[in-house]
Amino acid sequence: MCVEEMLNNIHKQIISASSEYVNHLAEYIYIYYVSERHLLSFDVFYKINNIYVERGEINRALSNNEYVNESSDKQCLLLDDCLSKIEEIRKYYVNLGEKPHTECFLVYDVLNDKLIVTYNYNARYETRPDDVHMTPEEEFDKWFSKVKSQGL
């Protein structure tokens, strides 16, 4: 299997898990992950009923007769599952002896079955200067705010 096939396969698994988490109610799924040498990070937010929501506030976007279990236990299961998939990507690259991407933004348009993927290959967090204190969580929050404010 080539690198592109492996990435497509694992990204589909991550998207599927993220979609299942919201009972397949999302119009768009936005995924951000980091995979640096000593750092793994993953998070996801959604557009549901034309409202942008993070994984802990899904029910805010639902009608009264809809409900998603967004308990911390369920969130942890999603995070653990997706982080293990990201670890699979890392191991695949190590076995090939190739340099993996360190950061990934996935935007999945559920209604049109279209995926946009953006990779970065430079370590941003482990090699940051002492005066730069952005964390993966802060980058995720910044992206969420940008998408929400611009309606992307």
User: Element order, helices and strands?
Assistant: HEEEHEEH
Any idea what the radius of gyration is?
Answer: 16 Å
Per CATH, the architecture is 2-Layer Sandwich
What's the CATH topology name? Murine Class I Major Histocompatibility Complex, H2-DB, Chain A, domain 1
Our count of domains comes out at 1
State the CATH class: Alpha Beta
- Let me know the CATH homologous superfamily: BH3703-like domains
Cα distance, first to last residue? 33 Å
Count of separate DSSP helical elements: 3
Query: What strand order characterises the main sheet?
Result: 3-2-1-4-5
Described by strand count, sense and barrel closure, the largest sheet is: 5 strands, antiparallel
Q: Please tell me the overall pLDDT.
A: 90
Helix fraction, binned, reads 25-40%
How many β-strands, per DSSP? 5
The structure class reads: alpha+beta
Low-confidence stretches: none
Q: How much beta, percentage-wise? A: 15-25%
Strand and helix map with partners:
Layout: H1 3-21, E1 28-36, E2 39-48, E3 51-54, H2 72-96, E4 103-109, E5 114-120, H3 136-150
Antiparallel strand pairs: 1-2, 1-4, 2-3, 4-5
Organism: Streptococcus cuniculipharyngis
Protein name: DUF600 domain-containing protein
